[in-house]
Amino acid sequence: MEYTRLGSTGLEVSVLCFGTWRFNKRSSGVLETDRETAQELLDTYAAQGGNFIDTANTYGGGKSEEWIGEWLAERNREDFVVASKLYWSAESRFSGNLSRKNIRAEIEGSLRRLDTDYVDVLYIHRFDDDTPLQETLRTLTRLVEEGRVHYLAASSGAAWKLTKALWQSDVGELERFELTQPRFNPADRPADYLDVCAEHDLAVCPYSPLEGGFLTGKYADRQLEPGSRGELQEWDLEFTERQWRVHDTIVDVADEVDATPAQVTLRWLIEYRPTTCVPIFGARTVEQLTENMGAADISLSSEQYDRIDLAYDQE
Prior knowledge:
Blueprint: E1 3-5, E2 12-14, E3 17-19, E4 26-27, E5 30-31, H1 35-47, E6 52-54, H2 63-72, E7 81-86, H3 100-114, E8 119-124, H4 133-145, E9 149-154, H5 159-171, E10 177-180, H6 191-199, E11 203-204, H7 229-232, H8 241-257, H9 261-270, E12 280-281, H10 286-293, H11 302-313
Parallel strand pairs: 3-6, 3-12, 6-7, 7-8, 8-9, 9-10, 10-11
Antiparallel strand pairs: 1-2, 4-5
């Protein structure tokens, strides 16, 4: 397993982050990951050198944090970097809220479920336009000062909102967001947002690195496989021609390097150079997790990397 520093922080993490949004999640009435499977997936991830785990207060109705906490209790907490999120409430009726009251309630709930004294990274899941940004940042800064949180981060949001938050942190001498979690993959690139991250040396930990399973190569005939994530989530496969060009190029490169399209996609993100990029992947089975972890063992030539870029950039 390779390891990297997260942006301008001192955190050293595996180049692949394990996302646990599927824990206790139901899609079309199907439970994607039960408690026993969750523990097995975490075991496999750690055994292969993974140390960066992503969750949120509301994933699986709080069960994601709870199951991670049970798993961590049997291990050395300092061996792992755990990231969680707040905004939607798991504690009160004040959902979609980043007020001082709600932040305090949510971090207490997360720490209780995770059975830990601190989280390494705390994301705001969304920006709250109804709460003064300075109130949010001051409250988050206090959590860092109290040792309950080590680093702050921002998940989805517009580039201008991220820029505004960085400016407020600077002028107010407050803790800043050090990580971001945009939707980003070779077929879906938020250029303005990524430019802000590169300019300010923010680590990028993209969610949906496989475009929701599209870049696994399982839809080459443009049909949904029975039991696939696309079928469970009732996709209509209405992707753009640009996205299909990237998809087909990744499938070709995978054949050349004797890897799977998922591994090539994740490797492309790992090697993204404007700033640190650590993709967050999910898995429903140990076999799927092991396949994704294999991205750490392959490499792409400059020509192959550029060819994937060209597929995206060409008109």
